[in-house]
User: What shape does this take?
Amino acid sequence: MPPTKTFQSELSAATAGVANKRSLLLRLVRAEQPITRTDIASRLEIDKSTVTENVKPLIDSGVLREDTLEAKGQGRRPRVISFADSGDYFIGVNLGVRRSQVGVTTLQGEIEEEEDFETPSAVSMALRQTRRHIDEIVRRNKDRRLRMIGVSVPGLTDTNRESLVFAPNLDWRNVAVAKELAVEGVRVVVENDSTAAAMYEARMKIRHSEEGLMTNFILVRSGTGIGVGLVLGSEVYRGSGQTRGIAGEFGHMTIVAGGKQCVCGNRGCWEKYASAAAAASLYLGDRRLRPGETVPRFVEIVAKAENGDNRSRRTLEQIGDYLGIGIANVIMGIGIPRVIISGRLVYGWQFIEQPLREAIDRSIVGKTEGWSVEAGSPAGAAIGGALEVAVEEYLSTV
Assistant: This one.
């Protein structure tokens, strides 16, 4: 794994590309807007003149705008920078195993609209339904400019981020997603859903902390399956060379030898024991469903636990224990001690957190200092992550 660069060297090195410098700076502006040049310089630990050098051409071209705030008292009125309200918009598509979402955002960061639908089992039908939603959004926004489409998928993607290579829980293979969802003149970027969620959480960390842009963490996304996203210096790591699409597939590491059969063909995979979908089988145990009984959904198990049902609480505690075992393995393998949990598991965090921490404490990671695990936002694992993919790709081209 390549060493992490400091932001100062990335932004100040004479050989660094102008586009890359601006992409890093724009990420902070988007997260904190409106923000002063002084605050930008302070957060990124660079000279104010360097900020001006990168911001001025973007203001002149209409990408950014600078406004004067009303001052309190007799002091100097501060000038703040934000993205110009150009009318440009972005479409995000989250193709989930059970449900999918299509949404719209702008550079101001708010989700303007969102539509949710059950994911068809046949990939052709799923893409056709998604295509209809995209076409309808474009029709409704014919007076605005669509800049980029981001698609998050529950599986491996190709190195060009255009196709879904394999989605184990849907049994979809070699799907030309970008080609099928293309809008004339607009790029479609396809990203693994865990990586997309990690991108979303990276922006949230910039907004809600004083850490600046240099954030390192592991994101564990748990829903129907489990995926892992890695963020180094607020940049997602996708692997290198021919392995770019496979980075983060820890959900299919074995944690129980000879355990439950997984859709990937292996036995005892982490996601068979620690995903939101695994809760149903842990809750039911070996017994069969009674006549008229349906498989309980994760949110239903959480609701029962909140109402004092012991079986539900034990189920969530088991999930937490297995989750902690896997997280300890991931921390040991990667060497990043900070973990953020994303996906449906967040809804049961109050029952999962303690057994998760106890499992990590039992491992060698627990004998060290500095590790942390926290719950992230469920939005990042859904439409939020997909929209982040679209916006981040656009910012990298400005």
Notes: Residues 284 and 295 are 8 Å apart (CA to CA). The domain at 7-83 is CATH 1.10.10.10 (Arc Repressor Mutant, subunit A). Residues 1-19 have pLDDT under 50 and may be disordered. The two ends are 28 Å apart (CA to CA).
